[in-house]
Description:
The complex is a heterodimer.
Chain A: H1 3-15, H2 17-30, H3 41-60, H4 72-88, H5 92-100, H6 103-113, H7 118-161, E1 166-169, E2 172-178, H8 183-200, E3 204-211, H9 217-232, E4 236-240, H10 244-253, E5 260-262, H11 265-275, H12 289-292
Parallel strand pairs in A: 2-3, 3-4, 4-5
Antiparallel strand pairs in A: 1-2
Helix pairs in contact in A: 1-3, 1-7, 2-3, 2-6, 3-4, 4-7, 5-7, 6-7, 8-9
Chain B: E1 11-14, E2 17-21, H1 28-45, E3 49-53, H2 62-77, E4 81-85, H3 89-97, E5 106-108, H4 111-130
Parallel strand pairs in B: 2-3, 3-4, 4-5
Antiparallel strand pairs in B: 1-2
Helix pairs in contact in B: 1-2
Amino acid sequence: MAQPARQAVSKLLSGHESEILAEWQRRLKDDGALKGGRLKETELNAQCASFLRLVRKAFEGGAVDADSEQFAETLQMLGDLSSSRAAQGFSPRETAIFVFSLKQPLFEALERHGGADATAKMQVSWSIGELLDRFGLFTIEAFQKRREELIVRQEREISELSTPVIKLWDGILALPLIGTLDSQRTGVVMENLLESIVAQSAEIAIIDITGVPTVDTLTAQHLLKTVSAARLMGADCIISGIRPQIAQTMVHLGVELTVVSKASLADAFALALARRGRTVTRVRKPESPAAQA
Amino acid sequence: MQGDGVDRIPILKLGEALLVTIQVDMHDQLAQALEEDLTTAIVKHGARGVLIDISALEVVDSFIGRMLDTIAAVSRMLDADTVVVGMRPAVAITLVELGLSLNGVKTALNVDRGMALIQPHTWRSDDDEDGD
Lengths: 293, 132
């Protein structure tokens, strides 16, 4: 940014800060920044005021353009703002408009107080536009980054949540699978299952695929791999919960599961108990305390 | 590194079963020596089962996997069951990824359960002799 333009912007900001601020806040509110109650008016006002103050301080400190180190604090503030907006569920447009809506008030202030030299004013407005564009883009970038972090975290949480290994009985484990099985998830599932087999010294593992929406050749292959690995460690696997449509699809695809499979988890559990030499029987109703008295 | 008795894996006789515990990293020569020793021992002791404990084995390759398969095939030919016990999860995953699912081999989680897999055979002959 050229020296005269810089000085003009600096002067404009320090001389008419409250005027610009009021106009900016009015525009933000008109645009619906407070709609939905996600942001309080006082909060928005404070954010606007602190942004303007930081920009003014940066110019007073001798900032040249958006990359100047004097703007570090401003960028930090914008980054925090984007993160919090992303977390609050604002859209990228709503987040970026915070910066872009400052343009108009600044241009108007420049129009009123910028003197008579049209060329100089154009120069200054160009500089302001450029600077705010950079800030706006930075805001969007920070917003995007925050959203991506959120997605990565959720992905990890989902993969952790969806692969629990449950102990049903001494030596009998159940692994209810939910969601599509890709190679990466199969790896996690397999590891979890094998670790649990060792930890619980289980002999039978029931893999329940009620929650798996589709089974194609690849998924079947992943399942069979898991079964083979469990067998290598000395545990038998039973597959349960194959839904009727899936069973049909699998047969049509020519996929063959060379493992014991049962229709429901209950059937598989009964088989597992039988293999362990146990059965479930109904006990006689214990006498009620009233009868004894 | 020559098979002079120091670099060999000991084979223990337990009833009618043989117990092999692999405690060191298997290199190819050692694997070959084990295969030979084991075959000889099965014939010598008339063993009905072979337990191979690989709970200390952390690294496997396709050669070791094939060796296990070969030992199982040879033992079967000599009328002895092979049970691989104590395989670690990482080893199991590696073998599956290598496409070696050791179909001819029985597996068990630990030596106790492995013995239980072999016992029915050894006991059956006992029962016959006792005439119970």
